[in-house]
Amino acid sequence: MQQNFALLKQIYNTFDPFRPLPAGDPAYVDCKEVRGDGDILVEVGREILYSDRITCQLYAGHRGAGKSTELLRLQKYLDDQGCFVVYFAADKEDIEPEDAQYTDILLACTRCLLEALKDNANPEPLLTWLKDRWHDLKDVIPNVSLEGLSVEKEIPLFAKITANLRTEPTLRHKIRERVDPHTTTLIAALNQFIEDAKKRLPDGYSQLVVIADNLDRIVPITQEDGRSNHEHIFLDRSEQLKALDCHLIYTVPISLVYSNRATDLRDIYGSDAQVLPMIMVQTPDNQSYQRGIDKVKEVLQKRISRVDSNLSITDMFEQPETLQQLCLMSGGHVRNLLLLMKEAIKYTDTLPISKKVLQRSISETRITYRNTVYADEWLALAKVYHFKQIENDERHRNLLFNRCILEYRYRDADEQIQCWYDIHPLIKGIKEFQDAFNQQFAPE
Asked: What is the pTM of this model?
């Protein structure tokens, strides 16, 4: 029993869905052939390398689809090409996704650039800005005085500001009130710092790139003017988002990419947002797509091989059909795949995993999706399942954001990208969905 416990614990932890794979990790699986043939190194990376101007690009996709893993690959690729890359996951230290605004993002960029480049550039412009604002900010960073502080002690104050933005709701609003009127001067100071840094980058580096990850997790909120916070951040404040004098990549909520402002995004940022779709595990006519399923199995196998190279993902299941069902029920969504696998292992005392155990993990996860959907959304989901398309309205955007609707892509015989949508496979087993579908589409 102890041996079983130790092995199952190792397997359980190798399927952790909240740790993006670092660049070069042997568990990485290239899935572009079943994701519409998109490649972040080409679509985003070469835009930076080939362009003779500063670029600002948007990267989108469902949360948990694997964007962070792809961005870490991009970071390594750009680093190898002579770009000094400052990557940060904004929700880890700097922003609160449930309540985020543009000012929070600017302060996060400031903190990360300052910490990454403080030894390569003169931070004086930013410290001068902080001193000029100190009268307004000193009560939101309690028990700190600038008098007599060295540069090394002053720099961490930006980290304290962003920490308070993330963890203290009361201070969050105070900080915004006091910083927001001065974002123009903060951008100017930050650009002075960036310009100095670009002249003193370490040997072998010629360009500076900032990747702000996890901004796609900012929860959509309708503001007093009837527009969403996503529009306020990525459209109304786009000039400020683009204003930093270095190459920029921001993750953006997928629901905004498919809003009626999509063309505005393209016009403002100069290109369409690059989207990471699901792994296509089934076709638009509801047939299993074996190439995609095999890729999903490869994702699982490479994780298992971390524990023991002799372990086979097929042998871990009592029946091959059970593994096939796991792949289909994930919808090609990597995080859901790993979560379902973890749940199945949790209910397993000894390998192989039985069909009953997998059904239990599916049932547990299905409850979460059932609780996510509002009563008036079941009919919309039934229509998406039937037509494989979405309507351009707030309801469908929210369902995209909540991963109840998933996006898939493939290239047709003419090499044209075809984009289609489906509901998450777990939703198909929910009674409310079945009732709505039968009511709308059942033959008479």
From this structure: 0.94
